[in-house]
Amino acid sequence: MPTDGSVPVGSGDAERSWIDTEVAGCQLGDQRLGKRLRLLLGQLEQAAGSPLPLACQDWANTKAAYRFLSNERFSEDALLAGHFQATADRFANTPGMVLVVQDTTEFSFRWAKRETIGAIGQVPIGLDRNGKPRILTQCGLLMHGSLVVTREGLPLGLSAAQFWSRKSFKGTTELKRHVNPTRVPIEDKESARWLSSLGHSTRLLGDPGRCVFVGDRENDIYEFLCAAKEAGTHFLVRTCVDRLAGDGHRTVARMMARVPASGQHKIEVPDAKGRPTTATLQLRFRRIHILPPIGKQKRYPALDLTVIHASEARKPRGRARIEWKLVTDLPVNSMRSAIEKLLWYAQRWKIELFHKVLKSGCRIEAARLRTAERLTKLIAMFCILAWRVFWTTMVARTTPFAPARAVLTESEAVLLDRTVRDQPSTPAAATLSRYLMKIACLGGYLARARDPPPGIIVMWRGWSRLADMMLGADAMQQKCG
Predict the structure, then answer these.
(1) Assessment of whether the complete model's pTM goes beyond 0.85
(2) Which is nearest to 244 in space by CA: 296, 184, 180, 194?
């Protein structure tokens, strides 16, 4: 079994399912609750994206699931504790630098009541009879997650997850007119979630020197950069703040404007209609002494960071002009190193795909649970299932020659061989990529010569159909036996 983090140890053992591996570290306070968690995860896996009653099949199991989600003896953190530990184990078996991608997503529930679920924002929905704007308060939850990803793009699992909702929005606009947001301590703002996720992830993984925290422009927080340095870890953040630099008389943008381009790098990006186009980026990079915000210079130190600018010289037709401004504490002394950092930042999109699995595959926003506590626990369980589908989608691309038993049981492999014929593009050997291709075909993948690798939603549908086929095969075996 490889030890590069690509295949979790024991995940393909027929005597111990992958669910047992992911929940082994959960401490729910009662052995019966642990058994119910395993059973409920298995039911949700077999009925991907279906309502809870359909997944549980009968009233007894459905009522037990509702009682489990309403139990006040444990929280969503306890449900994810086992998965966090499994992620740390996979991280320990992965050599070299590993990326920790952070981002926030919203789950909106149109049917929900603000009193029981909470709110996530306000949106205009037109005008009333007097011509005044009508404002709708969206009910829902927010989740901030940290996804551990290898440099090749294989998701190893979540290392942190936070759930919350907002209680009130009254007076926030008026408050901003009198209080400068930059003067408010980070501990009193929602932005503190970036720092707390960093702290939880570094403590969990245990080797901060091998971690690179990757974030978008919302992550461009000076307190976060200082916290990463204090924790002994690294970061790669897309910046949006033009901070003071050098002796304080110039900004980062003015200093980078004088840096000549070190070379060009071509990437493939889709246009507005989804057609592939080639973009030529000019790269500039420089080590710069960056100063903290004026109101926080007594509390935080100045930092020596590397700034990387990658942009197109001209605006292309059919799409927006690419302009990335990245900041990192890692040294960049060559074009090769700068391109490496661009490729690392491109892996930030993996957490967006993870959120897509949660919303489009698991269909979390269609859940009809009435309280925020139940919903957060359900989302926590779906996070484990979404990671599993995401991992099986990407593992065939990063380690195509891994053994099939790393993911599938022997009975699943036999059933796939009997029911799904090999496509022209299917590998001949009994490798993991061969059987994952068969699962993708169950989900509607055509496997034509020029087709891209199967995506997450296709794999999700394939796994769901395979689960139904396994249930039918087991029923026939019991009947004939």
Answers:
(1) yes
(2) 296
CA atoms within 13 A on the CB side of 184: 14
Q: Is residue 55 a contact partner of residue 44, using CB atoms and an 8 Å limit?
A: yes
Map out the domains of the chain as residue ranges: 400-480
For 446-464, letters b (16+ CB in 10 Å) and e give eeeeeeebbebbbbbbbbb
Per-residue pLDDT of the chain (481 residues; tens, 9 = 90+): 343 444 443 333 433 588 999 999 898 888 999 999 999 998 898 887 788 998 898 999 999 999 999 999 999 999 999 999 999 999 999 999 999 999 999 998 877 777 778 888 777 777 777 888 887 778 889 999 999 999 999 999 999 999 998 765 444 444 455 556 666 778 778 889 999 999 999 999 999 999 999 999 999 999 999 999 999 999 999 999 999 999 889 999 999 999 999 999 988 887 777 677 888 999 999 999 999 998 888 889 999 999 999 999 888 887 888 899 999 999 999 999 999 999 999 999 999 999 999 998 888 998 888 888 999 999 999 999 999 989 988 887 888 788 887 788 888 888 888 888 876 666 567 788 888 888 888 888 888 877 888 888 888 888 888 887 887 877 777 666 5
